């Protein structure tokens, strides 16, 4: 790396520093109001901002601009438009108007949208999101100014992931501010959700990856026998980073620095060739954009190092999968982390209030979090090899759980006849990191934040963040209503809060689990407690249209009932389409590679056996019979696969098609068992695809 990180950080971002330097003072002040949600953008100042943004972008090498948005395919999209225009006299000019900054019109016909529109209804609009700064992505011949935007249909229906996220964040932040005001914090102007998403990924040699159709087209191995040495020795975790991976990670970090993304941590993960980046936390909407920027940068730079980036949740069977641990909290305008325990008893009451609100929301609407993480790759990851199970529960740690339980106990004892001990001096002091971490829990309190471990590594964090914010807003509403009623009757705010926390814990106690979430007993216990156990994507995604969840999202103005329906449809379609792709790739790999290899192997084995017998030798067993058995099993697998593909194609209803796709995945898993047995028996030089032991080595 050349320049010091502090010298290049954010140089390709039109951030507050660049705005302050290039915008008139009054325009900058009004833009800040818009960014903080206290003002509204008008076209008069937008023209000044557009001109300054264009001049800044051109100075950074940009020749084009694009409204950069998040369609419902977990990716990002952009339509590049040139700054260059030619007037009537043929004079070349560089222009970027207020209208071009505020609004764009990409063709919306081919983006996932459920049943909200027909293919011929192509018009869609992008609209600038001022709360996330524009940035320049450089290329070999210039660069593109990317303007973060929302994406809506002609009638205003959202077609993206960002619009629901912004709505959910607004709902959460307003309700968190209400609680703060009930505690008498009049000086707090705003409360923001903050986030940091740990990004796990695999790196493999690109030449070997190119010889694997499943990796190229599906991002994971559809066949492949387990190697003799996988992750049994646990020697990769936090080990010395291979020089090829380190060179790649350093270049990614250097480019992310220029784009304003501060990567705080890099290290080896558990599985061979698995790694992790962890960024510094920032406001949730910006964190979502930055995570997408990180994935785009990682994809773009991998080929320079002869590497293939795998963001699939389960690229290799029987090895750890890759997640995206979403760490989140709330921070107020005074810089206080509202999930940070304090030595100040008053602050601790507020901490417990915000925490209990989330627990309550999780208890009532945990199905939304399960639905938000039901991406195709997570079907193979959740519940195995250190991935959290599909049951949404929360781990708070022994100390905080005991505090909550004893609050309940003490309030029962006093019965309102004596003043509550506002100092909580008979309860254990709460401080950061006073308990061990539970890596088996989907959600855990980790000292001064909550960590949601279920999202998949390929996912946009917009979906999980939307649902996290929505259920938290619901819990804050519940507690806020009870606090207001008690305060109105003359109770002190701290007393009212503790009463509400006590009630919330009583209602939601079943979602708090301090044990081993991997244990077989936990599933039965979770069902007994009334928790959702949605193992397949069909059942998980059905929670998006469950009555109580639709009512929540619509009441918070996050999604209308129709938007919930279409969002569910796009997710169901995603699973069905991915299954069809994987089945087609597996079929071609078996027909074009595996079966010919097994036939050649059988012919060589038959020839060798004839030579043995001609020499009067009789080998023990019959290796040819075993090989022919494998060959026939694979042939049967192809026939079964083709039958399943036809059955899936014939399903008219999306829910039925998704259920059928789950059955198809089981068919593919059974076929894989036969293929992997055959791989182990097939000579090295005849097997058509690089094996695990080759793929899982950067040497």
Structural class estimated from helices and strands: alpha+beta
- Considering DSSP H and I runs of 4 or more, what fraction of the residues is helical? 40-55%
Instruction: Bin the strand percentage.
Output: 5-15%
Number of strands: 17
Chain oligomer state: single chain
Q: CATH superfamily membership of the largest domain, which one?
A: Glutamine synthetase/guanido kinase, catalytic domain
Shape: globular
Mean pLDDT: 90
Family: Belongs to the glutamine synthetase family.
Domain GS beta-grasp: 63-156
Domain GS catalytic: 161-594
Protein name: Glutamine synthetase catalytic region
Report on this structure.
- With 699 residues, this protein is α+β, with helices and mostly antiparallel strands.
- The chain folds into three domains: 5-157, Ubiquitin-like (UB roll), CATH 3.10.20; 190-470 and 485-559, Creatine Kinase, Chain A, domain 2, CATH 3.30.590; 575-695, Four Helix Bundle (Hemerythrin (Met), subunit A) (Up-down Bundle).
- It is built from 22 helices and 17 strands.
- The chain has helices spanning 5-8, 16-22, 25-35, 43-59, 98-102, 162-182, 206-210, 213-218, 243-258, 284-302, 345-372, 378-381, 398-414, 462-488, 493-508, 520-529, 537-541, 547-555, 561-614, 623-649, 654-681, 692-695, and strands at 64-68, 81-82, 84-86, 92-94, 103-104, 124-128, 135-139, 142-153, 191-205, 263-268, 274-279, 282-283, 307-310, 324-332, 394-395, 443-445, 450-452.
- Strands 9, 10, 11, 12, 13, 14, 15, 16 and 17 form a nine-stranded mixed β-sheet that branches. Strands 1, 2, 5, 6, 7 and 8 form a six-stranded mixed β-sheet that branches.
- α19 runs parallel beside α21 (654-681).
- Residues 63-156 form the GS beta-grasp domain.
- Belongs to the glutamine synthetase family.
- It comes from Thermanaerovibrio acidaminovorans (strain ATCC 49978 / DSM 6589 / Su883).
- Pfam families: Gln-synt_C, Gln-synt_C-ter, GSIII_N.
């Amino acid at each position: 790396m050349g320049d010091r990180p502090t010298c290049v950080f954010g140089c390709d971002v039109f951030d507050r520093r660049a705005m302050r330097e290039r915008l008139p003072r009054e325009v900058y002040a009004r833009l800040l109001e818009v960014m903080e949600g206290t003002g509204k953008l008008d076209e008069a100042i937008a023209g000044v901002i557009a001109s300054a943004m264009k001049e800044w972008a051109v100075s950074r090498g940009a020749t084009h601009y694009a409204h950069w948005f998040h369609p419902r395919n977990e990716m990002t999209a952009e339509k590049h438009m040139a700054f260059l225009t030619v007037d009537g006299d043929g004079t070349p000019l560089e222009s970027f108007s207020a209208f071009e900054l505020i609004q764009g019109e990409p063709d919306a016909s081919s983006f996932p949208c459920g049943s909200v529109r027909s293919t011929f209804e192509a018009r869609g609009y992008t609209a600038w999101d001022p709360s996330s700064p524009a940035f320049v992505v450089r290329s070999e011949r210039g660069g593109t100014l990317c303007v973060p935007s929302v994406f809506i249909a002609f009638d205003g229906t959202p077609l993206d992931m960002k619009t629901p996220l912004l709505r959910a964040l607004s709902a959460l932040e307003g309700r968190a501010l209400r609680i703060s005001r009930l505690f008498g914090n009049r000086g707090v102007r705003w409360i923001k959700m903050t986030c940091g998403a740990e990004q796990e990924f695999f790196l493999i040699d690109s030449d070997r990856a190119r010889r694997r159709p499943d990796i190229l087209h599906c991002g994971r191995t559809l066949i492949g026998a387990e190697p003799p040495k996988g992750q049994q020795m646990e020697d990769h975790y936090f080990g010395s980073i291979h020089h090829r991976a380190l060179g790649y990670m350093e270049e990614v970090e250097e480019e992310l620095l220029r784009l304003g993304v501060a990567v705080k941590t890099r290290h080896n993960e558990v599985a061979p060739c698995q790694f992790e980046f962890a960024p510094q936390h920032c406001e949730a909407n910006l964190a979502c954009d930055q995570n997408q920027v990180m994935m785009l940068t990682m994809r773009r730079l991998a080929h320079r190092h002869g590497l293939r980036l795998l963001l699939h949740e389960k690229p290799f069977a029987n090895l750890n999968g890759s997640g995206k641990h979403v760490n989140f909290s709330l921070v107020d305008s005074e810089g206080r982390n509202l999930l940070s325990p304090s030595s100040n008893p008053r602050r601790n009451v507020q901490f417990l209030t915000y925490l209990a609100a989330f627990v309550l929301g999780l208890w009532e609407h945990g199905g939304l979090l399960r639905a938000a993480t039901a991406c195709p790759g997570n079907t193979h990851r959740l519940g195995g090899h250190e991935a959290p199970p599909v049951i949404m529960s929360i781990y708070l740690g022994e100390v905080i759980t005991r505090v909550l339980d004893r609050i309940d106990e003490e309030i029962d004892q006093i019965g309102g006849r004596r003043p509550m001990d506002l100092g909580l001096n008979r309860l254990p002091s709460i401080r950061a990191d006073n308990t061990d971490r539970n890596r088996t829990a989907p959600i855990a309190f980790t000292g001064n934040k909550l960590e949601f471990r279920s999202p998949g590594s390929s996912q946009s964090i917009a979906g999980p963040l939307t649902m996290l914010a929505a259920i938290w807003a619901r819990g804050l509403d519940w507690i806020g209503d009870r606090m207001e009623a008690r305060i109105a009757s003359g109770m002190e705010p701290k007393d009212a809060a503790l009463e509400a926390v006590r009630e919330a814990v009583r209602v939601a106690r079943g979602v708090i689990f301090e044990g081993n979430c991997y244990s077989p007993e936990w599933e039965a216990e979770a069902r007994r407690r009334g928790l959702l156990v949605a193992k397949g994507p069909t059942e998980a995604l059905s929670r998006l249209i469950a009555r109580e969840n639709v009512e929540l999202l619509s009441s918070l103005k996050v999604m209308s009932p129709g938007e919930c329906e279409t969002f569910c449809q796009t997710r169901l379609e995603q699973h069905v389409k991915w299954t069809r792709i994987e089945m087609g790739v597996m079929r071609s790999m078996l027909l074009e590679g595996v079966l010919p290899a097994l036939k050649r192997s059988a012919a060589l084995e038959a020839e060798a056996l004839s030579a043995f017998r001609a020499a009067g030798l009789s080998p023990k067993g019959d290796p040819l019979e075993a090989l022919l058995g494998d060959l026939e099993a694979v042939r049967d697998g192809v026939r079964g696969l083709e039958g399943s593909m036809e059955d899936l194609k014939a399903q008219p209803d999306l829910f039925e098609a998704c259920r059928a796709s789950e059955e198809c995945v089981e068919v593919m898993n059974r076929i894989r068992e036969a293929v992997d047995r055959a791989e182990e028996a097939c000579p090295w030089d005849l097997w058509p695809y690089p094996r695990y032991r080759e793929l899982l080595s950067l040497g």
